[in-house]
């Protein structure tokens, strides 16, 4: 069995949250190991868009800028959006949130997840990478956590972080329980070519079976997120591209004209999940390992990147006080900083899903009033935008 030097932090999971966390901790002079099952694919700048796209808010973007990762992203694959338009299929009122309400040049950027992952992996100068490798066992001892990998290598670290997604082996091995439920819906994603330009606006139309959202892409096309009840999702999966485009044009109310082309598409199930705790002695979880939200608000990745900023801040505070990275006192500081905010977002997206997914006539009336009221009251619109962009002057240093 190979003996490895002790690390400050060993991260399991090299996706967006895990990879960015590895860069952030290494830049903060922590000794970091990263364990990942599969090497990320090299990106061809001439290839089509990846299916997974995220709306990166200004706060998390600042984190990426402070780590030098934002400048590594190719400009021609990033699209700023300056407004969000939300409306209900059977109502005339619409809610339009625009960047001028908070004095920003944009509300966020649509970015392929794979681009951020690639940028982070290219910045691993001071990160020891174990790939391909999987965690086979986790043992927590008084002075260290011990990871055994599937190739029998052993890693010891003051702290092990699970950032390997909703089915986190680290979370399971640590005995951290979760609560949550499925929504009986799937989200169909892909790149669509509309008849009209998106005008750098994110569009979302609520229908009885779920919202249809278009996110603007740099070349004038849109990234589709069509949330549909399982029965409809099954039906959509069987359609050829021409019929799918016709149905999508109808479901979107033709807001961007006729949908002319649909690229490769895929669908994934929607659920809510929240861990009952984010930390234990020498163990922490972050990103989807800790929380999974309904994607209608587009906040999943942003929440994970905010986790990164707060976890780094907590570990830096512990080090300044002479504690190692696995000290529970400072890990709980991270949990306090993130759990309440994440629970608020989970509750908000769950409430929206239930409000807009209900066939109850009273709720149908209330959701129309909600859009109508928010569209007429500027202070409400400004509060909604401020929450969405994720900027704070008194937060952790990586967000400032």
Automatic annotation (TrEMBL):
Query: Under which pathway is this protein filed?
Result: Cofactor biosynthesis; ubiquinone biosynthesis
Q: Which InterPro entries match?
A: FAD-bd, FAD/NAD-bd_sf, UbiH/COQ6, UbiH/COQ6_monooxygenase
Keywords linked to the UniProt accession: FAD, Flavoprotein, Monooxygenase, Oxidoreductase, Ubiquinone
Which Gene Ontology MF annotations are present? FAD binding; monooxygenase activity; oxidoreductase activity, acting on paired donors, with incorporation or reduction of molecular oxygen
Q: Which Pfam families match?
A: FAD_binding_3
Q: Does the keyword Iron-sulfur apply?
A: no
Q: What top-level branch of life does the organism fall under?
A: Bacteria
- What do the Gene Ontology cellular component annotations say? ubiquinone biosynthesis complex
A GO BP term, please?
ubiquinone biosynthetic process
Tell me which residues make up the FAD-binding domain: 7-320
Reported cofactor(s): FAD
Fill in the subunit field for this protein. Answer: Component of the Ubi complex metabolon, which regroups five ubiquinone biosynthesis proteins (UbiE, UbiF, UbiG, UbiH and UbiI) and two accessory factors (UbiK and the lipid-binding protein UbiJ).
Please name the PANTHER family in this protein's record. Answer: UBIQUINONE BIOSYNTHESIS MONOOXYGENASE COQ6, MITOCHONDRIAL
Which family does the record assign?
Belongs to the UbiH/COQ6 family.
**The protein, known as:** UbiH/UbiF/VisC/COQ6 family Ubiquinone biosynthesis hydroxylase
């Amino acid at each position: 069995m190979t003996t490895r030097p002790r690390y400050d932090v060993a991260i399991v999971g090299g996706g967006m949250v895990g990879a960015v966390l590895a860069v952030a901790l290494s830049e903060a002079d922590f000794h970091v190991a990263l364990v990942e099952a599969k090497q990320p694919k090299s990106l061809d700048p001439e290839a089509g868009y990846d299916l997974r796209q995220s709306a990166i808010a200004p706060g998390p973007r600042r984190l990426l800028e402070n780590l030098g990762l934002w400048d590594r992203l190719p400009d021609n694959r990033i699209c700023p959006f300056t407004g969000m338009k939300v409306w209900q299929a059977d109502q005339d009122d619409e809610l339009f949130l625009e960047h001028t309400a908070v004095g920003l040049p944009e509300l966020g950027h649509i970015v392929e997840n794979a681009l951020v992952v690639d940028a982070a992996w290219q910045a691993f100068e001071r990160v020891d990478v174990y790939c391909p490798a999987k965690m086979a066992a986790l043992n927590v001892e008084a002075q260290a956590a011990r990871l055994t990998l599937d190739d029998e290598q052993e890693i010891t670290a003051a702290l092990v972080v699970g950032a390997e997604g909703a089915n986190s082996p680290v979370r399971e091995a640590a005995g951290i329980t979760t609560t949550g439920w499925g929504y009986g819906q799937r989200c169909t994603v892909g790149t669509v070519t509309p008849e009209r330009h998106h005008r750098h606006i994110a569009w979302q139309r609520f229908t009885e079976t779920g919202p249809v959202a278009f996110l603007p892409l740099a070349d004038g096309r849109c990234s589709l997120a069509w949330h549909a009840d399982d029965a409809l999702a099954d039906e959509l999966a069987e359609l050829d591209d021409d019929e799918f485009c016709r149905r999508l044009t109808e479901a979107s109310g033709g807001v961007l004209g006729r949908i002319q082309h649909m690229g490769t598409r895929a669908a994934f199930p929607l659920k809510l999940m929240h861990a009952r705790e984010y930390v234990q002695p020498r163990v922490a979880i972050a990103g989807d390992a800790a929380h999974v939200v309904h994607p209608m608000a587009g906040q999943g990745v942003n929440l994970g990147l905010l986790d990164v900023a707060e976890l780094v801040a907590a570990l830096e505070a512990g080090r300044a006080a002479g504690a190692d990275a696995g000290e529970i006192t400072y890990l709980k500081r991270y949990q306090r900083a993130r759990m309440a905010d994440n629970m608020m977002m989970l509750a908000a997206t769950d409430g929206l899903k239930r409000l807009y997914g209900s066939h109850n006539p009273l709720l149908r009336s209330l959701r129309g009033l909600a859009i109508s009221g928010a569209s007429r009251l500027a202070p409400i619109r400004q509060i909604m935008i401020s929450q969405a962009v994720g900027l704070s002057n008194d937060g952790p240093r990586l967000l400032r």
